Amino acid sequence: MPHDITKKLMSPEEAVRRFISDGSQIALGGFTVSRNNMVLAREIIRQKKRNLHVVCHSHGQALDLLIGAGCVRRLEIAYGGMGRFAPTCIRFRKAVCAGQIDIEDYSNYQMSLRFLAGAMGLPFMATKSGLGTDLVKIEGFPIDVRGTGKVPSMKLAIIENPFNGAEDRVVLLPALTPDVALIHAQYVGEDGTVRLKGLTFADLEQARSAEHVIVTCEEVVPRSFIRDDPDQNSLPAFLVDAVVKAPFGAHPTACYQFYDYDPRHLKLYRNMAANDDLFQEYLENWVFNLPDQEAYLEKVGITDLMRIKASPAVGYAQGLDRR
Amino acid sequence: MPHDITKKLMSPEEAVRRFISDGSQIALGGFTVSRNNMVLAREIIRQKKRNLHVVCHSHGQALDLLIGAGCVRRLEIAYGGMGRFAPTCIRFRKAVCAGQIDIEDYSNYQMSLRFLAGAMGLPFMATKSGLGTDLVKIEGFPIDVRGTGKVPSMKLAIIENPFNGAEDRVVLLPALTPDVALIHAQYVGEDGTVRLKGLTFADLEQARSAEHVIVTCEEVVPRSFIRDDPDQNSLPAFLVDAVVKAPFGAHPTACYQFYDYDPRHLKLYRNMAANDDLFQEYLENWVFNLPDQEAYLEKVGITDLMRIKASPAVGYAQGLDRR
Amino acid sequence: MLKDSTGGKRELRMNQYSPREMMATTAGRMINNGDVVFAGTGISMLAATVAKRIHAPDAVVFFETGGIDPSLEELPLAVADPRVMAGTSMNAGLIEAFSILGHRRLRTVAFLGAAQIDRFGNLNSTVLGDYKKPRTRFPGSGGACDAASLAWGIIIFMQHEKRRFVEKLDYLTSPGWLSGGDSRAKAGFVRGGPIAVVTNLGIMRFDHVSRAMYLSEVYPGVLPQEVVANTGFEIDISGVREADPPTDRELLTLREDVDPQRLILG
Amino acid sequence: MLKDSTGGKRELRMNQYSPREMMATTAGRMINNGDVVFAGTGISMLAATVAKRIHAPDAVVFFETGGIDPSLEELPLAVADPRVMAGTSMNAGLIEAFSILGHRRLRTVAFLGAAQIDRFGNLNSTVLGDYKKPRTRFPGSGGACDAASLAWGIIIFMQHEKRRFVEKLDYLTSPGWLSGGDSRAKAGFVRGGPIAVVTNLGIMRFDHVSRAMYLSEVYPGVLPQEVVANTGFEIDISGVREADPPTDRELLTLREDVDPQRLILG
Question: Which residues form the signal peptide (chains A, B) (predicted)?
């Protein structure tokens, strides 16, 4: 059968080894508490990838873990937070204040437009968002990295709208074309087609903008299932390089229709991330000492996983104690 | 119940009367042989709207009928054809050759980008498509209409990519913000939510770019049905001004999962459109002499309608004689 | 304003209410029926939801993440919470959400918070101290700059403290009225700007000409001088009046219907 | 090249084939396994489908309308035919389709036709005569200009007639090699350009330096001079060879599997 995924199906270990190098520019899918690609984030840390250039819009857990583990050198971002569990991502804040990472601030729409430009093969996108703010006035990246690697020659450009005359100024945002996009999906068909359920955030734009795409998923489903309603599908097989079957692969963040975020784990993380020694202990306990996702899930334990299991009626865990 | 469509549900007659005026800029949804909003096109002709400024990408039957009936003054378009039934739309060709309409040529991607820019509130979109061609070198609209009404000040602009230096030229395309978009959908929920099935073409960008949106539909379905899987929905209620229940509203073009295009009617049309007198007869027989969609469907007849009824297995009429 | 000094938060009586309850109901009243509300989490969720349940049933709540008109049977704790994906009219993505936010035919009202605000309603949610070597780092713009740039109007929630109401922002993340007067239009914006600032002390609005912030209302029991003392720039208090306290219906809706777990009410 | 002079089209024997069958199989062989093929209707559908069924099972056919990898159990007669929406891996829209077309990581090959072609493979599908007062009007670019601008490569189908192979186009709708040499890159394109022109007489390709069209292959029974006589500009025929006729398998697949109704084969 043509278009099957047997050649693309691989372990997280293989996917990270093959598609991510030191210095890679990687786009993180998901949004704050949802569909963070945690299984790949933990594997990147295990493989001690360094100097990553992360591009995302609003991101949370995977980003914070990667930064805390010292994998990230450069970051283009709109928001680093985990909602009520960490209004500002903890290791992110520490790293920025300590000057350990170079950061370039954009807004969510700006970052989404940059991914969309890359996805559509357009050189840049124009917007009015940000005029008059420090987002358009202040560059975060040092001048000497400008134009090197995947860093654009300017953060952005402000031009006059040629259709409206000098008074009408617009912001031009350079396209993003990351080396790899990391996406966690609910379903991948045996034909390689990807289906996201619930909000897609900017995952599709990120995937379409990237040179390579790794999709981890909750379920690999038969071709007949995924092709039964193609209107619901999100990415064609030919844009995906690696498929990793990883149930609960977004834990402790949520995966709509499969499981909720895990408030107990996120609180545990928050407490340990606040302290350098405890954070190292977290990395040892939850990343380095665990060889793979199976071991991780064993450590989380069936009780906590069942607690966050989504109700099929609403797609989250109804009545979950989130205080 | 909030968000219901009782205030928006109306007849084609009322929808056209309220939202379309002489000179309006209207975006036609659908694509060549599919989901042309025929029920509104016939009503616009009945109400003798004049000097319409039509904007579309690849369009067929509705466009040709509107042009033939003398409703259109200006046209921005990428393609006027009906596939094998009329490689070039017949009345369209006649009107262009006779200088009866002003025409501005773009490509499909260019027009789609212009709708997307309007939908996203962006002033323009950049692309490489068309560099070096007459599409970017020759303006079709007379100079004296430039900058008037909804006509942009220039067809397009070519600039140097500020991120890459002088050698890298790009085409800037002005956003479209039509007065009205005409969309034919499969489903509208009682909460006003619109669901398109099959290919969406640029319908969603057209609707989101417009000041007003008229949606005709095959079925009005209960709120519980449309909200059961919001991932499948296409437009929120607050972007829709009028909902018109119009079964077979795209006939003689196709509506995926409901009916196929009607080869007999399209051949009838082709033969009559080729001759000015016969075309007037077509308009009399199929538009002016019929008060509404019910009368139109009675005239088409149940036999022909059943012949094109879509198989639920594939969404079109399997084995339909299309020679 | 009565603080909840009785201990049991769940035993608040109807004639008592917390600052958060006052803020949520006050802001909720600014929502008109038919508005399209760009909600964040926290108190803005309460404001939007209480408005929808009481006087603005046709208001539509949507999130920058793409969730449009969710049923909100449980309160989301983040804009990407799966609770914003349930019972929606449509699950879209960021591109669609921000397109809606800036759609010229919609009266979109966005709720924002920030670490700092200046007299023209410009906001900082990025850093304190020097941007290149910050004293502390906040999450960043997220969609705040986009909302402040593109929405029909924004309503800002703040804790009223001198260190937050500052003469000069450490970083201008989200545009308010910029440097006042017509500077916002001159910068290139075609609409928008701050409507009001809702704090734990009262409501600030902006002069229609100078675009400078003034004190519009104080909550019952708050003195205008308290606002002056907690504001780091000069503020006109000459036109102040006392705000209406939450009604019984508003409080009941908030406590029993919108946030029974007191996840946000605290 | 044997014309079907026997009358019964369905009775064509395997050693007989029509020009259309020759064109479809010839172009089909230019598709590599794994290519992402931007198909139009007509003969390009046949070429793509016969390639997929024989030597390029992993090639993916998609349409500018947004249909990706449809099952094509029946032949679509237009790119918006509901037959391009059935059994697909994904039903998208134009924006997604053109994004795929230009995607730098994909080897996208587009099939195009036109009313006129020049020596550098530039195409006219807009007008004959003056643009402002045309002698006749064609449908226009549609996605052709986009495909010729953005795809990895294009393959062009033409009837080989002098009035179609012209010294100067009446209107340049879709960019080929523009004025030859490196003019395409200089215009701002980062890839693409015509690979071949497949006509009822043979196959034309383009010199790698001058980018001028030359005759690469003639069909069995066609003389190179016939090509010269039907070409409105000078064409190099010095390297011509005879093309391989369709194989039995190709013809069987075309006739019995791909287009049994002879909707396109005629």
Answer: none
